[in-house]
Amino acid sequence: MPYNFNIKGVEPRKKEGGMFVNFVFRVDPAQKKKALEEITQKVQTFLKDKSIVPWFNVRPTEAYLVKGEPFIEDLSNRYPASRLRVEFQGPDIPIETLYEHFRPYGLIRDISLLPESSKDLPRYAMIQYSKMRSATSAKNCIHGMFVNATRLNIVYDMPLKTNMVYNWMASHPRITVPLIAATVAGITYTIFDPIRVFFITSKTTQRFNIQENRLYQWLRKETIDRLMAFREKSDDNDESFEDLSTWKEREQEESKLRNWLKEPPETFIVLLGPNGSGKSSLINKIIQEKRNKVFIKCDVILNSRDENELVSKLARQVGYFPVFTLMVSLSNLVDGLASATIGQKTVGFSSTTDTEIKKILDALTIALHDIAPESLTKKSWYAHKKSRDYLESPMVESYDSAEIPIVVIDAYMTKDKESHELWDHLAKLAALLVENRVAHVVFVSSNIGIIKHLSRALPNKTFNYAVLSDAPHERAIGLVKRHVHNKNLEGLEAAVGALGGRLTDLKLFINKIRSGQKPNDALQDLVAKAIIDVRKLAFGDDSEDAKTISWSGVQFWKLSYDAVKFSPIFNGDDTPIRAMEQAELISITQLTNGRPYTIKPGKPLYQAAFTEIISDGLFAATMELQTAEYLLSIENNKIKKFEDELEKLGSLFVKTDGKWLFGSGHVPEPVEHRVKFLLSLLKKRHIRAEEYQKQIEELKKVVAKGG
Q1: Which helix (H) or strand (E) element contains residue 197?
Q2: What is the arrangement of strands in the sheet containing 406-410, beginning at the earlier edge strand?
Q3: Residue 145 main-chain phi, psi, to 5 deg
Q4: Can you spell out the DSSP letters for 600-645?
Q5: Alpha helices of 205-320 — where are they, by DSSP H?
């Protein structure tokens, strides 16, 4: 470096990406300007030839001579910008002069002066550089410089950035909102759906279940199972509440279920039986050794506080993860806001419980299809092709029945929940799985009405269904004796005979005996409670209860299926009878061809309750009175109908001479026969009405006497 150049100090400016270099040199004052230009040129040449920055920094390194008095600051809210605000401390400087002083630091996009009409002070000019590096160099080198007696004070001016894409999207919500929704759906489909299918597959195949691990099974067999061997041996002849499938009476039903599960999926498997008859225990025992299984407990799902919890429980049972239940509420909120702003609902943003359930079941279908034996699903695919292609399919199927997935839908169509949307979704899922031979679907329910409901999902096919009944008398007595531990058993067999073989009632009965009650006292407590339940559910003793039942007390009083169905009380409509069955007040037994045959109490305990209710003379007289009044009203309506028709026929006679208005003046023969027929019916109805009226008068006397 010439002129005895010597560096005195360096001040780095990290925020602006540069530094100040303070130096001294010796030169004749007359040559000072020339010397500074030569020193600057030397530095520029050195920086160009010698790279002093990392290789990834593509910006050129430059050096400029400071001409003003730089303002060295560390203000936290001031950041470098490509636009400079040049304030004039003196007269305005024209654009040409500004260009001449600021252009050496980089390419300038625009220079604008404050209009002369503006009264803002101080006066200023805006200089927009194309690069921020040029603006930082100009600001640090020119700040404080005097130009034509005007001091230049320079600050960074942060421009209000505008985004053309954002502005266009904000101004066209009818296009952008559906586009965003489609993008979100696409991301969900490509990212989350495969993850969800993976987790469903893992849960179905027990991939991460340690109990399915061979090492774990061997260790358990050699340790815990050996320690429990003596206990198991001592309990061989005992009967347990949990393992009801060990009953000999259940062996036939168990055998049928096992055989159906070995066959390819062709139709639904339906397991029916009253509550507490051991349906779930039996199906659990049968599929215990199966590897690929899904268990959906509808009663647990429907016992939810809100719709989000319902979706979460369903997702947890099938292994659907991740699930964003909060997104349902948020999507509905977005849909409402969009409707208010753009005047129409969004497509894809709105999400309901119905759509969330459908998503979960769709993912379950995909996972089960991937698990199912390929030979079964391939043959199902052939069946949808042309007949020529179908002949090319293999005639003998080769598959392992243990590999066929099994979907158990427990507590399907429980009472008070018959209209829930979940039933239709599960029925459609089951139909899709069975029709494509993907998986066996087992419906477990105490509601016999599911047969009709499922027939709509899978028409033209006969279901495989098994029916479980209550425990026989000997089996029920054996269960009670085993669990009461030789307490006071006087009158036990008679009490159990009246109680029946319903497991839930037997448990309550055993608990009462264990607490110190005698068998007959325990039975009377249960019967008293059953009477209260029957009066509340069947007869609607309370006015609020009466509003919720689908039948009248009179209809329940006169029950016998075929005779009652076509009696005047029911008039051929068995809807109230089915509703009583759903309420578990009665049970309808069927013949082998599926036709309803007889009506029995909903559970054996109700037989004793019904007997007690009938033995109540006052209540029986009251119900007979209501029945007679109801039948009398039916007869009176029929009589009124016949009388109205006769009156219409009589109005066709001329009052003066009694002649018929049409024809020859005589009554036509068909009309005469019709009149005679109506009169005969009217006579019969009058006789019945008189009989009912006599019954009503007699029953009113009985009720007045208090039974």
Answers
A1: helix 193-204
A2: 293-297, 406-410, 440-445, 269-272, 464-467
A3: -80, 145
A4: EESSHHHHHHHHHHHH-HHHHHHHHHHHHHHHHHHHHHHHHHHHHH
A5: 214-222, 224-227, 229-234, 251-262, 279-287, 298-302, 307-318
- Cα gap 21→10, rounded to integer Å: 5
The per-residue pLDDT for range 123-137, each reduced to its tens digit, is: 999 999 999 999 999
Q: For residue 185, what is the DSSP state?
A: H
Query: What is the C-alpha separation between 17 and 136, in angstroms, rounded?
Result: 8
On the 0-12 / 13-18 / 19+ scale of CB atoms within 10 A, 250 is buried
pLDDT tens profile 642-670: 888 888 887 766 555 556 655 556 677 78
Q: Determine contact, residues 163/151, Cβ cutoff 8 Å.
A: no
| β-bridge partners, 356 | none
The answer, yes or no, to whether the previous bond of 194 is cis (omega within 30 of 0) is no
Count CB neighbours of 455 within 10 A: 15
SS3 call for 504: helix
Reading the block at residue 557, the tokens are 């009083």
The CA–CA distances, whole Å, from 594 to 257, 272, 492 equal 19, 13, 36
Q: Evaluate whether 178 touches 346 at the Cβ level (below 8 Å).
A: yes
- Amino acid letter, residue 149: A
CA distances from 384 to 72, 392, 435 (A): 81, 13, 11
Three state DSSP letters for 547-564: HHCCCCHHHHHCCCHHHH
Tokens of 378: 């391939």
Find out whether 206 and 291 touch, Cβ atoms under 8 Å.
yes
List the domains of the chain with CATH numbers: 6-156 (3.30.70.330), 187-224+249-381+402-467 (3.40.50.300), 473-611 (no CATH), 616-706 (1.10.287)
pLDDT tens for 279-320 read 888 899 899 888 899 999 999 999 888 888 999 999 999 999
Give burial (CB, 10 Å; 0-12/13-18/19+) of 135: buried
CA end-to-end distance (rounded Å), the chain: 131
Q: For 173, phi and psi rounded to 5 degrees?
A: -65, -25
What average pLDDT does this structure show over 181-198?
Answer: 84
CB 459 within 8 A of CB 431: no
DSSP 436: T
- Write the DSSP string, 133-182: HHHHHHHHHHTT-EETTEEEEEEE-------HHHHHHHH-HHHHHHHHHH
Q: Is the dihedral of CA 375, 376, 381, 382 positive or negative?
A: positive
249, two tokens: 């009476």
Q: Are 108 and 99 in contact (CB under 8 A)?
A: yes
| Dist. CA 102–CA 108, nearest whole Å | 8
pTM exceeding 0.70:
no
Euclidean distance between CA atoms 625 and 280, whole angstroms: 44
